[in-house]
Amino acid sequence: MDSQAKYGIVARGEATVYIRVPSPSDPHYREKIWDHAAGALIAKEAGGKVTDILGRPLDFSCGLRLEKNRGILVTNGVLHETILKVLENLVIL
User: Fold this and answer.
1) Strand (E) or helix (H) holding 5
2) At residue 79, does pLDDT exceed 90?
3) Which regions of the chain does DSSP assign to beta strands (E)?
4) Residues 6+ apart with CB under 8 A from 29
5) Structural domain for 80, as ranges
6) Closest C-alpha to 49, from 11, 23, 15, 90
7) What percent of the chain is modeled with pLDDT above 90?
């Protein structure tokens, strides 16, 4: 499923979480802006919350990729802080 559709599913309430965790085999990979800009806006307008997996807002000002972000976390807003705390304890960060 395309990234934008995943944002839409969270925005519609059909899912509570969409998460993209960076692959350990490619730690320098950064998400492409066009895969996330529109979806992030839709999820936020529906009451959701969108950050990277470290809790930072997505920064769309760095060219074609989200250079200042690691991974993606989209939630219904209610679970966001809880999921960020769980992510803090994972080795991947």
Assistant:
1) helix 3-11
2) yes
3) 17-20, 49-51, 72-75
4) 22, 23
5) 3-88
6) 11
7) 82
Q: The whole model's pTM is what? A: 0.91
**CA dist 3 to 64, 85, 88, 89, 91, Å?**
16, 24, 24, 25, 25
Strand partners, 49: 75
Tell me, yes or no, whether 93 lies in a domain. Answer: no
Q: Report the pLDDT value the prediction gives residue 24, as an integer from 0 to 100.
A: 85
pLDDT at 11: 96
**CATH number of the domain that 66 lies in?**
3.40.190.80
Q: How many domains would you assign to the chain? A: 1
CA gap 8, 12 in Å, rounded: 6
* Structural domain includes residue 44: yes
